[in-house]
Design a protein that fits this description.
Order of helices and strands: HHHEEHHEHHHEEHHHHH
Shape: globular
Largest sheet: 5 strands, antiparallel
Strand content: 5-15%
Strand order of the largest sheet: 2-1-5-4-3
Oligomer: single chain
Number of helices: 13
Length: 266
């Protein structure tokens, strides 16, 4: 009975995400499309996917060389990433479908609801606490140059057609951002951008130490509660730091703040 009640609650939560106001959706799409670096794009996608699907999990890959190159991830265990990098991507039905169909898909739909829980994809996800996955293509012109993945831990809430449609919209916005990066030389064909070390020293010149620590964690895509727990301060104090940082850098929300900070560090 408890499992049934939980399933009903999860479905109700999913329906709430499906009814997300169009204005909020447009704001998320614009934040993604306006990203000026790959790291900023990853942070914007993470924020949007969290709001649209309820899961903060995101993995952004660029198709660089013989295998996908991970350039941004959030709330994904290193072990799962290692498994994928070790060769699972060669047999990933979601990736295959994305590359052949050129649209957003989810694992359960690709494999089939009846076969999903017996598939290698589900077994790998389940080992790391996930139940369903979804991904979509990132284009530059007529070529897919990247893939955006997400996954959810909710066992009773497979991705809906509307969730796939919104994932497709996010990927279109991300494609525009990557195309602009190509045009400006921020991103070069055949070469993934290097990762930037996340140290407080990079921001200490312009920010007080406490604000710099919060800013770094905002760039990582952490929530206020996660930041508060790590830093040993209250959620309200973190909220005030974020609000002050937004005013300082002339941005409207934490997504724009992360994009601004990440772009400044390139």
């Amino acid at each position: 009975m408890a499992h049934v009640v939980r399933g009903v609650a999860v479905r109700a939560e999913q329906e709430q995400f499906d009814r997300l106001a169009e204005g909020q959706l447009a704001d998320r799409l614009m934040s993604i499309a306006e990203s000026r670096s790959v790291r900023a794009l990853g942070a914007a996608c993470c924020s949007a996917i969290t709001e649209l699907t309820g899961s903060p999990t995101v993995g952004l890959y660029l198709l660089d060389g013989p295998e996908p190159a991970l350039v941004y991830s959030r709330h994904v265990a290193d072990g799962l990433l290692d498994n994928y990098k070790a060769g699972f991507w060669k047999h990933d039905p979601v990736l295959d479908c994305i590359m052949t169909r050129g649209c957003a898909v989810d694992g359960e739909t690709v494999i089939g609801p009846q076969q999903w829980r017996h598939s290698p994809s589900f077994e790998m996800l389940h080992e790391w606490g996930f139940a369903y996955n979804m991904g979509g293509p990132l284009w530059c012109g007529r070529k897919i140059i990247g893939v955006l993945f997400t996954a959810t831990t909710e066992t009773g809430a497979p991705y809906t057609p509307r969730a796939r449609l919104r994932m497709q919209m996010l990927c279109r916005a991300g494609s525009l951002a990557l195309t602009n990066m190509m045009d400006t030389g921020e991103l070069q064909a055949g070469r993934s951008p290097g990762r930037q070390p996340e140290t407080a020293g990079m921001l200490s010149a312009s920010l007080p130490p406490r604000s710099a620590d919060v800013a770094i964690r905002v760039c990582r895509g952490q929530t206020n509660k996660e930041i508060a727990r790590e830093m040993g301060i209250s959620d309200q104090t973190v909220k005030e730091h974020v609000a002050n940082l937004c005013r300082r850098f002339g941005v409207h929300n934490r997504t724009e703040l992360a994009a601004c900070l990440l772009s400044a560090r390139q």
